[in-house]
Amino acid sequence: NAGVTQTPKFRVLKTGQSMTLLCAQDMNHEYMYWYRQDPGMGLRLIHYSVGEGTTAKGEVPDGYNVSRLKKQNFLLGLESAAPSQTSVYFCASSLIWNEQFFGPGTRLTVL
Amino acid sequence: DAKTTQPTSMDCAEGRAANLPCNHSTISGNEYVYWYRQIHSQGPQYIIHGLKNNETNEMASLIITEDRKSSTLILPHATLRDTAVYYCIVRVDSGGGADGLTFGKGTHLIIQP
To answer: Is B71 helix (H, G, I), strand (E, B) or coil?
Structure first.
């Protein structure tokens, strides 16, 4: 079991560029989440999904879009990157509501 | 979800028990107490959770006061690998709800050799 994996691990973008972060889990979990973590801060929820084909907004959704076309994958898109989106992005999944499993993170820098 | 208050940082000697406090004085009757930790540059890791009773697993023990307004996470024999930021999170488990976790700044626990 690989658990939760994230692609890529690092990325540098210029302002206005777009990109997609991929999260994959092999635990057959229904729920998946995207968080961001800024320096010295806790994680904040961007979007989440309760199952294939469903998505919902979290605490800080502006500037991001998500898709869950397959149960095992959850994609996070930045259509027009801004320096304020420089952060570490974590994906997580859970089978039920009590324990979330996190990926290793993607470090994104927007210049 | 209720807010939590944790010390910013704590030290503990290797091999000793590490006791991490958390205050959640506004907790509601249906809110659970969760603990996660985040080792530097890694994703958070679930440790333990509880509602009223004390809980223990292979990683830690969770002691919740009778009035549920505070709790303590205990790492019985701390090692250098336990150096991490520890997050105390209070949330309603809606039995199928998928809302995310609300992280504060946590406690930076430093295990001293």
So the answer is: strand
Q: Which residue has the tokens 């997050």?
A: B87
Cis peptide before A8 (omega within 30 of 0): yes
Put simply, the answer to whether A48 touches B98 (Cβ < 8 Å) is yes
Are the CB atoms for A84 and B22 separated by under 8 Å? no
List all residues 6 or more positions away from A27 whose beta carbon is below 8 Å from its beta carbon: A1, A3, A4, A93, A95, A101
Q: Following CA atoms A50, A53, A59, A64 in sequence, which dihedral angle do they give, to the nearest 10 degrees?
A: 150
Nearest chain A residue to B97 by CA: give it.
A97
Q: How many CB atoms lie within 10 A of CB B2?
A: 17
Please state the rounded mean pLDDT for residues A45-56: 93
Q: What is the pLDDT of residues B26-79, one digit of tens each?
A: 998 888 999 999 999 899 999 999 999 899 999 999 999 999 999 999 999 999
